[in-house]
Amino acid sequence: MPLWHNVVSLTSDLVMPDKKIRYGQYLGAIRRHHRQVSYNEVIAAERALPAQRAKLRLVDLHRLLTPYVTVRFAEQIRAVVPLALMLVGFQALALRTSPADAETIILGICAVMLGLMLFIEGVKQGLMPFAENIGFLMPGRSNPLTILSFGALLGTAATFAEPAIGALQTAAASVSAERAGLLKSLLGPRSEMLVLAVASGVGGAVMLGLLRLMFGWRMKVLILAIVPLCLILTAYAASQPGLDRVLGLAWDCGAITTGPVTVPLVLALGIGVAASAGRGDNPLSGFGIVTLASLFPVIFVLGTAIHFAGQNLPPALAISAAPNWHQETPIAEMLGALRAILPLVLLLFFVQRFLLKTPIKRRDLFVYGITVAVLGMMAFNLGLTAGLVELGNQAGNNVPWAFSPRLGSGEPPLYPRFLGLSMALLFAFCIGYGATVAEPALNAMGMTVENLSDGAFKKRLLVHVVALGVGVGAALGVARILFDLPLAWLLIGAYCIALALTVFSREEFVNLAWDSAGVTTGPITVPLLLALGIGLGEAVGAAEGFGILALCSAGPILSVLATGLWIDRQQQDTTWSTT
To answer: What is d(CA 213, CA 128) in angstroms, rounded to the nearest whole number?
Structure first.
């Protein structure tokens, strides 16, 4: 017999035999020394105790903060590092050169990633609760006119707070005053009017988007009405000397506005309005505002340019040899961040506190969010010029060396002209494709679309279809700069095809396709592609280097609409074969 069996047998002999008692006797025994205490007395006793702050060790802080920060910083790494490696790798392998001031560029890119992480976190913690609360409370406590006015002010203020809007100021130095005087004045002395036109366009788009949600207008009808107006203005501007140089800037501004501030805040308001109008259960209620916010700035910027076209150009701003204290780093970046964020914060605070008469529940969280957002935008502005813009400019200046003499030194081209041009266009395609695949917003949109389409439009398919459209658009934009192709007719041709596809497409695919154009242009992609185009323009002697973002936005509209028609055709063939 095993040893453990002997031990168990011996133990059971030593235990006292069980005694059976009634359950009532048991309850009486255990209740004899119990005393009932009110729950209110327990709470009062706890509150009477002296407050003790939790003491956290360094290892506790590490365990709490490291996972929290790592996830958010990893998103920025996935968006920035692949693009930077492509730019550096192409220059090192194909052009046999390396970026100048590499240490400064690396520090700048790190500052951009850190700043964008802090800024987005601050917006989520400090501003998003405002917008969500206002979006759900305002429709029940205010009239439609007040809601529309607030939406217009919100869209305008959010545009000033977009991180990528600052990339426009860095483009003025590369524009030729002799060949594009009106464009240079809009980016220089009249830059505030340009930003105001863009912000006003977004405000008008938000108003129209809210009206659409209130009355249930179809997005297809709005697109078929607004896009032709954009194309008519584009054709008119192309026929006027001076205005033709503004076309690239106007259409690029539509891509700059749909960033990490405008889209979430406006969607939060739109979802609340849709819920109050009885359309909150519509999964497509959030689609469409991004499209309108990318089209209206084109109309407003072209209108502003037409207004200034008949006037004398203002004198160029004089550059002071010794800048004032508020123009020096980092004071200038801090003031710029405050000017961008404070109007938006004051607007949201005024509406919630005085119009809706609702107090702020978590003031500490609100102050934390605003502080982090300001610090993040300051870091982003610091790293933008030294990191992303400089890297893009250097890549743009070096790419033409593949097929033409090198700018500055006059060294002969590295490859035959046809091979060098092919390499430059392939490089542009890879930049557009890679930037889109790494875009976090597109991956989130892909998951939503796969759920809404019951698996007919897979997330993987959507991501690669949109990336293909952006890549082709980037290659076409680079070709436009290299060969001085007319941007107006490229845009008119692309959007006429898009309108034709829109007529024959379902409403769901129309919303998806036109919104995908805005999702792909984030705060990292915009300044990088702008700098790439500007650098290319300088290298080949072009008057300006805008237009790459405009064609990058048109590409995914065509590719997604075409894919949607193909999916519908496949489903029809499957239905016919089963019947």
So the answer is: 20
- pLDDT of residue 453 exceeding 80: no
Determine, yes or no, domain membership for 349: no
- Orientation of helix 331-350 relative to helix 128-141, angle to 10°: 30
pLDDT digit string, tens, across residues 312-371: 766 654 444 455 665 666 677 777 778 878 888 888 888 888 888 888 777 888 888 888
Domain extent, residue 264, equals: 85-116+144-313+386-578
| Angstrom distance (rounded) from CA 118 to CA 366 | 14
- Buried residues in 104-135 as b, exposed as e (16+ CB within 10 A): ebeebbbbbbbbbbbbbbbbbbbbbbbbbbbb
> HEC states along 343-366?
HHHHHHHHHHHHHCCCCCCCHHHH
For residue 104, the surrounding DSSP H or E stretch is helix 102-122
Residue 276, pLDDT above cutoff 80: no
Alpha carbons 425 and 477: distance in angstroms, whole number: 9
Better-scored residue on pLDDT, 576 or 245: 245
Residue 100 lies in a domain: yes
pLDDT digits (tens, 9 = 90+) for 151-199: 888 888 888 877 777 667 667 767 777 888 888 888 888 888 988 999 8
To the nearest 10°, report the CA torsion of 285, 289, 295, 296: 130
pLDDT greater than 80 at residue 449: no
Dist CA 311 CA 503 (whole Å)? 40
Whether a cis peptide bond, with omega within 30° of 0, leads into 330 is yes
* The two structure tokens encoding residue 297: 């700035």
Q: What local confidence, expressed as pLDDT, does residue 360 receive?
A: 79
Confidence of residue 200 (pLDDT cuts 50, 70, 90): very high
Residue 433 makes CB contacts below 8 A (sequence gap 6+) with: 467, 468, 470, 471, 474
* CB burial of residue 16 (10 Å; 0-12, 13-18, 19+): exposed
Q: How many domains does the chain have?
A: 1
Q: Mean of the pLDDT values across residues 386-395?
A: 82
**Span 539-554, pLDDT tens digits:** 888 878 888 889 988 9
> 34 lies in a domain?
no
- Residue 404's SS3 state is coil
Angle subtended by helix axes 548-578 and 417-437, to nearest 10? 70
Query: Is 290 a domain residue?
Result: yes
> What does each C-alpha distance from 122 to 73, 117, 373 come to in angstroms?
14, 9, 4
Taking alpha carbons only, the member of 443, 428, 335, 431 closest to residue 381 is: 335
The secondary structure of 160-219 as a DSSP string is HT-GGGGGGGGGGGGS-TTT-HHHHHHHTTTHHHHHHHHHHHHHHHHHHHHHHHHHT--H
Write down the mean pLDDT value for the chain.
80
d(CA 512, CA 461): 13
